[in-house]
């Protein structure tokens, strides 16, 4: 099946990310960091280890990032440097996500520019990122809520009336259905 995906279409990458990808802002306490908090952005796609060939193709499509073994059964494609994340941002600006993941992406992109401009090294910039993180995915951890009591989540972007701009966006659904079928035969 993977051979039919020898060259991945950009919309396939977007559709696949809508289903399997995530945009993460990680904020951890680190005594050596300027403000005692380390901020790291991640773009990730996690799959079962049997789908490593597909993750390799996605990695080769972007030509950035690394693939890691997460545990015995899963692997993860991850991009985390600001330089490499700029390539990811460029892709999703050109081939936008269609699901609610678009809202997380838009928030992630705001944090990306704060970090790119090194504003996260100031208290004000760190608070901006904290407010963005509060509106993404699972929000703030209990540790972050306790450490940043005055943080208010930024408004979450609204995602409505999205339309499929290219049929290749849907191709990943077909791929996943076939992979599920063949893994259960």
Task: Name the descriptors.
disordered N terminus, 17% strand, Endonuclease I-creI
| Shape verdict | globular
The averaged pLDDT comes out at: 88
Helix content: 40-55%
Which structural class do you get from the secondary structure elements?
Answer: alpha+beta
Q: Biggest β-sheet, characterized?
A: 4 strands, antiparallel
H-E string: HEEHEEHHHHH
CATH architecture annotation name: Roll
Number of helices: 7
Give the spatial strand order of the biggest sheet: 1-2-4-3
- According to CATH, the fold-level topology is Endonuclease I-creI
Classified in CATH, the superfamily is Homing endonucleases
| CATH top level assignment | Alpha Beta
Total DSSP E strands: 4
Instruction: Please give the alpha-carbon distance between the first and last residues.
Output: 15 Å
SS strand fraction: 15-25%
- The tally of domains stands at 1
The rounded Rg comes to 18 Å
Poorly predicted regions are 1-5
Question: How would you describe this protein?
Answer:
- The chain is built from seven helices and four strands, in the order αββαββααααα.
- With 185 residues, it is an alpha+beta fold.
- The protein has a single domain, classed as Endonuclease I-creI (Roll), CATH 3.10.28.10.
- The protein has a four-stranded antiparallel β-sheet with strand order 1-2-4-3.
- α3 crosses α4 and α4 packs antiparallel against α5.
Q: Can you describe this structure in just a few lines?
A:
The chain is of the alpha+beta class and 185 residues long. Helices cover 44% and strands 17% of the residues.
């Amino acid at each position: 099946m993977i051979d039919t995906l020898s060259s991945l279409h950009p919309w396939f990458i977007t559709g696949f990310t809508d289903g399997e990808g995530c945009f993460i802002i990680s904020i951890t306490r680190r005594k050596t960091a300027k403000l005692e908090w380390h901020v790291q952005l991640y773009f990730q796609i996690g799959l079962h280890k049997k789908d490593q060939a597909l993750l390799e193709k996605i990695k080769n499509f972007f030509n950035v990032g690394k693939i890691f073994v997460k545990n015995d059964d899963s692997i993860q494609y991850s991009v985390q440097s600001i330089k490499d994340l700029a390539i990811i941002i460029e892709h999703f600006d050109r081939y936008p996500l269609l699901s609610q993941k678009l809202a997380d992406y838009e928030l992630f992109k705001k944090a990306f520019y704060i970090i790119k401009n090194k504003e996260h090294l100031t208290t004000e910039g760190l608070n901006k990122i904290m407010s963005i993180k509060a509106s993404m995915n699972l929000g703030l951890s209990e540790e972050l809520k306790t450490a940043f009591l005055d943080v208010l989540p930024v408004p979450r972007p609204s995602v409505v009336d999205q339309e499929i701009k290219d049929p290749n966006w849907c191709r990943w659904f077909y791929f996943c259905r076939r992979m599920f079928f063949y893994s259960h035969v």
